[in-house]
């Protein structure tokens, strides 16, 4: 396992826009004023809600030959306690090799004492929120299955409803 910044550690996770615009002066959300017309269009559809973990974004990228670790961006610094934890908890090459025929990127959040406000969560750990194989994002049941086989938890699913419910 090695720590590598940028695309070398797998595709960077895309930015997810918030539903609402923010007031630039106060930084407060302006409920009802959508940040994108696509979100306004989808407001009455069923949305799936997951807990937002306050930590640092981490990519675990299996190249088909080795495991690379990266942060959210090219310049992201992985906190030393988290990197040390990952070194002892990321499954061995054989596990990845048995599960995947080629490249896969597992996206998650590193959290715990010393990471953002993570001391509220307890000791340092890593939790999965998405998986990408080549250009395909997996459905939630498949994300859960892969995370479990790798020995990681997934972010808690909170429910499904329209944006207004």
What would the average pLDDT be, to the nearest integer?
89
| Share of residues in strands | 25-35%
Ends apart, CA distance between termini: 44 Å
**Low-confidence regions:** 1-6
Secondary structure tally: strands: 11
Large-scale geometry: globular
SSE string, helix = H, strand = E?
EEEHEEEHHEEEHEE
Total of DSSP H or I helical runs spanning 4+ residues: 4
Please describe the biggest sheet, giving its number of strands, its sense, and whether it closes into a barrel: 7 strands, mixed
Question: Which structural class matches the secondary elements?
Answer: alpha+beta
Question: Could you tell me the radius of gyration in angstroms?
Answer: 17 Å
Q: Can you give the helix content as a percent range?
A: 10-25%
Structure description:
- The chain is of the alpha+beta class and 165 residues long.
- It contains four helices and eleven strands, in the order E-E-E-H-E-E-E-H-H-E-E-E-H-E-E.
- The strands form three sheets. Strands 1, 5, 6, 7, 8, 9 and 10 form a seven-stranded mixed beta sheet that branches. Strands 2-3 form a two-stranded antiparallel sheet.
- It is globular.
- The chain starts with a strand and ends with a strand.
- The N terminus is likely disordered.
Layout of helices and strands:
Layout (H helix, E strand, L loop, with lengths): L1 E2 L16 E3 L6 E6 L2 H5 L5 E4 L5 E7 L4 E5 L8 H10 L3 H7 L4 E8 L13 E9 L2 E2 L2 H11 L2 E2 L2 E5 L4
Parallel strand pairs: 1-6, 8-10
Antiparallel strand pairs: 2-3, 4-11, 5-6, 5-7, 7-8, 8-9
Summarize the structure.
The chain is an alpha+beta fold and 165 residues long. It has four helices and eleven strands. The model is unreliable at 1-6 (pLDDT under 50).
């Amino acid at each position: 396992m090695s720590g590598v910044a940028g695309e070398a550690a797998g595709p960077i996770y895309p930015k997810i826009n918030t539903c609402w615009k923010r007031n630039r002066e106060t930084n407060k959300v302006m409920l009802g004023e959508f940040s994108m017309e696509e979100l306004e269009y989808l407001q009455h559809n069923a949305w799936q809600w997951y807990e937002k973990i306050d930590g640092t974004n981490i990519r675990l990228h299996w190249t088909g030959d080795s495991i690379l670790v990266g942060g959210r961006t090219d310049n992201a610094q992985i906190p030393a306690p988290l990197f040390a934890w990952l070194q002892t908890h990321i499954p061995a090459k054989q596990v990845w090799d048995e599960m995947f025929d080629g490249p896969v990127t597992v996206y998650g959040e590193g959290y715990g004492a010393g990471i953002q406000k993570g001391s509220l969560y307890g000791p340092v750990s890593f939790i999965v929120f998405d998986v990408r194989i080549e250009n395909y994002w997996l459905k939630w049941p498949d994300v859960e299955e892969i995370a479990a086989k790798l020995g990681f938890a997934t972010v808690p699913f909170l429910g499904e409803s329209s944006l207004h419910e």
